[in-house]
Amino acid sequence: AQSVSQHNHHVILSEAASLELGCNYSYGGTVNLFWYVQYPGQHLQLLLKYFSGDPLVKGIKGFEAEFIKSKFSFNLRKPSVQWSDTAEYFCAVISNTNAGKSTFGDGTTLTVKP
Amino acid sequence: KAGVTQTPRYLIKTRGQQVTLSCSPISGHRSVSWYQQTPGQGLQFLFEYFSETQRNKGNFPGRFSGRQFSNSRSEMNVSTLELGDSALYLCASSLLAGVGYNEQFFGPGTRLTVL
Fold it and tell me: Inter-chain contact A43–B109, Cβ cutoff 8 Å?
């Protein structure tokens, strides 16, 4: 069974600090990887996705993630966070053999102090 | 193109009652999945329907059921509600036209409160 692990439950940063959120998955086959963001009171929004090709993917709002197949990781990064990035971030995996099912990590709450 | 819509957005029920939630996927999407989101358990997969057939099921009791209609709209039903069923229920749709088309698009959710 596939599983996703997010290393940090709660991250607190000051504005302009750099961000890296860890995500590791467990699955032996081909996967597609996603990062979602959920702002307070809002629904899940896709930040970025990886299907194939360049392992460094860029998403919205200045976010990027790097897929490292050998480490089963898909870490999310942003060089300089803003107060408006305060939200909960979820890493998710879909396997090509189970395309209708996303497996989510537990989420990381990011608080950015102004 | 309209996104995934879910109705109702908010619902309050009492223990023992049953509830039906509705989801309309993005036009052309044939796969609809349901998730339960709670502070303690995070996002948990309930089930997935594709062309009116349930293809995947998560680890939830039989009180949770669903169906999909020929127009791809889906409903989820929870019978004999328990306090622990209070959650945000999310619906997601996918095109599933092949590799690279399994991105899920999420609706705003239905917030269910069981008293």
Answer: yes
